[in-house]
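Quick one, T. Sequence first:
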Amino acid sequence: MNSSRARLFLLIGLAGALLLVAVIVSPLLLISLPSFITDGGTSPDCEDTTQVEEVSDSGTADIPADYLELYREYGKDVGVQWNILAAVGKRETDHGRSDLPGVKSGTNYAGAAGPMQFLISTWGGKARISMSSKFNGYASDGDGDGVGDVYNPADAILGAAKMLRRNGAPEDVRRALFVYNRAWWYVDQVEEIARNYAKSGAVEVPPQASEDCDDPLIAAAPSEVVTKILQYALAQRGKPYLWGGTGPDSFDCSGVIYAAYRAAGLQIPRTTFTQWPFGIRILEGEEQPGDLVFFNSGPGTSATSPGHVGLVVSKGKMLEARCRLCGPIKVTSYESRTNRVGFTRPLQNADVIEQLKKLQDPSL
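Structure tokens:
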């Protein structure tokens, strides 16, 4: 009887010990797995799920309600960070509240005018411009009255958003701000204000701005040849635009695509005008990496003769070399572009199909 009790107590003790070990170890298994067992470390969120940044308490307190509405509206419409727009407005004129010369009338000592402090020459040559006239500048009609008025907050904020977008925002915010006012101390000050205005305390950039997001794009390529095309094209990101450029130091829009296909062993036409009829037309929604997306880019181009092209790298995203003042070669979104003409697939061109056969079997 005593020995049975002893064995029973021993078993109970062992069970308790095992249970104690399990209680101690199981949380460790949940929280202490080394990175090579889990995901290899922190990975970037490469899905384009950018949400509108919320306003901080200090932002709500400092920015007039009508200005805040304009910053948010035109930031979203044009595709730049609203808090960067707001920070520019704060740094330049305290959201139009400054009484210094040039804010509400005339110009300051440097020739700048309005709440966003545009040089009159940059605005379009004069302070108030009929939008039906021809001009060269950022004059915009934010309030729909047909006039681009540099002193009108709606017009000026819309014009500033366009200028920032043209010069690199939302991806390369610092470059865009430097072009706005060519001083790095200015860039630092605006970014600091923008961080204070955001509830997150950050200036968010879209995921395509991160080179860490290249690998998922390449891994999702539908074929080996598209993998080679994307590898070359994405490696050119950050290089400058040059009209007529085919590399290796700079490219134009069709030149980087021409070079990317050549890196994969394929010859396609060199220019946008000749690339458009070359590929097989693809319905919107059926495009895939390696396809081309075309745009009507203004005078001299049309829906039947597009003047700009990008390389589709994933659904909704393209690599493009846009223009000399638009910032470096980068991955951007094509879904928000209203001047999109259509998609083509060069890999389905009869000549390219023959080239692919020869690549697979050099004896042909």
